[in-house]
Design goal:
Two copies of one chain form a homodimer. Chain A has 146 residues and is α+β, with helices and mostly antiparallel strands. The first copy, chain A, contains six helices and seven strands, in the order ααβααβββββαβα. Chains A and B meet through β6, α5, β7 and α6 of A and β6, α5, β7 and α6 of B. Bound molecules: manganese (II) ion (2 copies) and zinc ion (ZN) (2 copies). One zinc ion binds next to α6 of chain A. Chain A binds a DNA duplex (30 and 30 nucleotides) through α4.
DNA sequence: AATAGTAATGCAATTGTGTTGCATTAGAAT
DNA sequence: ATTCTAATGCAACACAATTGCATTACTATT
C-alpha cells in the first residue's frame, strides 16, 4: 500500500529488532488501506507465521509506544490499528460503521477542526485529538435496502 | 444540574416506564457535570435503591437507544455516559485524562469543526461525529510535579 | 378480588478483548 | 561453549459487558 515505507527500516530506525513477527504485523497493517483489530491482524499473520495471540498484542503495544502505529477507538470495545501519522501520512479522521464494524480512513481535509480556542484556554495537557465519524457504510446501506 | 429536565417526564415522553431504577440512573447522570461509567452509576444508585449491575447496563442501553443518553468512548475499554445533546444541551467534545480516567465536558465552541466537505462527498450515512481530546488533567499534572 | 399476560429485574454463567506471570527459546556477545 | 538478554509461548487472569433463564412487579381483563 505504501511505497515509501520499508517496514524493516522503520523498525530499526525506531530502535527495535525487526523480528519476523514484528515485520509481519507492521506489513499487515501497512498493506491494508483501513485500520484493523488485533484479532484481524493475528488471523492474517498466523496464515504464514506461527505466532501467538499475546505476541500480537505485545507488538501492537510496542509499535504504538514507538509512534509507528496509532491506536484508534471504535466507540465499541475493540481497538483498531493503523499507521501513525508521519511525513508521508497526514493525520486524518476515521469513519466507523456501527453496523458491520468496518473502520475507514477519511481524507485529511474532509473534517477541518479549529483548536485555537481550546489550545489557549485549556488548563491541562493536550496529547491527542481523536475525531471519529460514526454511521452506516454504503455496503450496509445496500443490504438494508432489501 | 439541569433545571430544565424533569427526568420522569423525559422517560415518559420517550415512551418508557419511569421506574424507580430508570429515574435514579438518569438522575445520577443528569445531576453530574461530567460523564460517568456504568459502574460509577451503579455505585451511586445502589446507595439508595437495591439494584443489580445488569439492570444498570440494560437501562443505559435503553436510554442510549431512546436518544436520552449518549455513550462516549474513552479510548479505553470502558464507556462513559452523559446526557444526549438536545435543545438545552448543545453537542460538545469531551476531554479524557489518560492518567486518571476522568472524563470532562468541553465547551461546544472550544473545537470548531467544518464538515461541509464531508457531508457533501461521503457516500454512507453519517449519524454522529465524536470528538475526544486526550491528555492529562490539571489534577494529574499537579501530582506529577512532586 | 382473582387471573392472566407483559415488562422489568435478578442472578449465574459466559463472552470478548486485553493483560500478567512465568517458562522457554533464539540470538548476540564474550 | 557460556552467558546474557530480548522475544515469544502458554496458561491463567482481569474486567466490562452480555446472555439465558428464572422471578417479581405491574397492568389489564374478567
Ligand atoms: Mn487511517
Ligand atoms: Mn458532555
Ligand atoms: Zn458497514
Ligand atoms: Zn487526570
Amino acid at each position: 500500500m505504501c511505497e515509501n515505507c520499508n517496514y524493516t527500516t522503520i523498525l530499526k530506525t525506531a530502535g527495535v529488532d525487526a523480528t519476523a513477527n514484528r515485520v509481519s504485523v507492521l506489513e499487515t497493517i501497512g498493506n491494508n488501506n483501513y485500520p484493523l483489530t488485533a484479532m484481524d491482524i493475528y488471523h492474517v499473520v498466523e496464515r504464514t507465521l506461527s505466532i501467538n495471540r499475546v505476541t500480537v498484542y505485545r507488538i501492537l503495544d510496542l509499535l504504538v509506544a514507538k509512534n509507528i502505529l496509532e491506536r484508534l477507538s471504535s466507540g465499541g470495545r475493540t481497538a483498531y490499528f493503523g499507521m501513525a501519522p508521519n511525513e508521508n501520512h497526514l493525520p486524518h479522521p476515521h469513519f466507523y460503521c456501527t453496523s458491520c464494524g468496518r473502520m475507514d480512513c477519511l481524507n485529511s481535509e474532509s473534517v477541518r477542526i479549529n483548536t485555537e480556542q481550546l489550545q489557549k484556554t485549556f488548563p491541562g495537557k493536550i496529547e491527542n485529538i481523536a475525531i471519529r465519524v460514526d454511521g452506516i457504510c454504503t455496503n450496509c446501506l445496500k443490504e438494508k435496502a432489501h
